[in-house]
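Technical note accompanying the year-one report. For the benefit of new consortium partners, we illustrate the data format agreed upon in the data management plan: each record pairs a sequence with a C-alpha cell string. No post-processing was applied to the example shown here.
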Amino acid sequence: MRALKKQVRGLYLGSGTVPRWFRYCLIVFDLATIVFFVGTAHKTHGPMLTTISQAVGLIILLDFSARLWIARDRRKFLRQIYTLADIIVILSLILDPILNESLAFLRILRGLRLIHSYHLLRDLRRDSQFFRTHEDAVIAAINLMVFVFATSTAVFVFFIDHDTSQTPYIDALYFTMATLTTTGFGDITLGTSGGKLFSVFIMVVGVALFVRLAQAIFMPQKVRHKCGGCGLYRHDPDAVHCKHCGGLLNIETGGVS
C-alpha cells in the first residue's frame, strides 16, 4: 500500500511529464463535466442521463478519495471550500435517480465543481509559463465565469417559469448577462421583490468582477518573486529593486522585446 500511495502522490504532486499530463487530463475532465452539467440542468433525467451522471460521480469520487488519501493534513483538506464543493457534487450525482422534480434544484449545486478549478491553479502556476505571465487575467476570468454560472443557475431555478419558456436555462443566462453588463433590454425581467434585489446583487458584484478582469488584462502584469528582505512577492517584470524595502531582486526573465 505504501508503494501505491507513493505512486498516487507522484501523479498528483510530482513534476515529471506523466504527472503533468495526468493533471491536465483532470482539468479537461472538469471542463467536460461542467459543460455536461450546464447542458443537462433543465432536462428531465431518464435512464441514460442518470447513468452518465452516476458514472461522472464515481470518477469524481475516486479523484476525491485519492486526494484525501495522500493529504498530509486530512482535517485541513476536508475544511477547504473546493473539498466541500466536491462532496456536494458527488452526493447530487450519486443520488440522481431519487431527484424528483421537487428536488431537481439540487442539480444546480453541481456548478460548485467550478470551485475545484481554483485548486488546479497551483498546477498551472508550476507547469505553465503562459499562466505565470497572465495569472491575474486568468484568475479574474475564472472568478467572472464562476459568478456568471452560479447566478444563472440560481435565476434558472428560482425565477424562470419553465412552463412558458422553451429554453429556460438560456433565458436565465441571457438575463444574467444583460443585468451584469447593465445593458437593460427589459425583455426578461424579475418582477418580484426578491428578483429585483437579486438583480441589484448581480449588477453590483458583476460590474466589480468585470472591472477587475479589465484591470488584469490592460494593466501591467506582476510576477511572483519573493523578496529576500521583506517578503514582498509581487513585482514588475523588469524590477531590479523591491519597491517596499529597496532590496536587490534577481527575477528570472527572458527579456522584454
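Partners are asked to follow this layout when depositing records. The longest helix spans residues 193-218.
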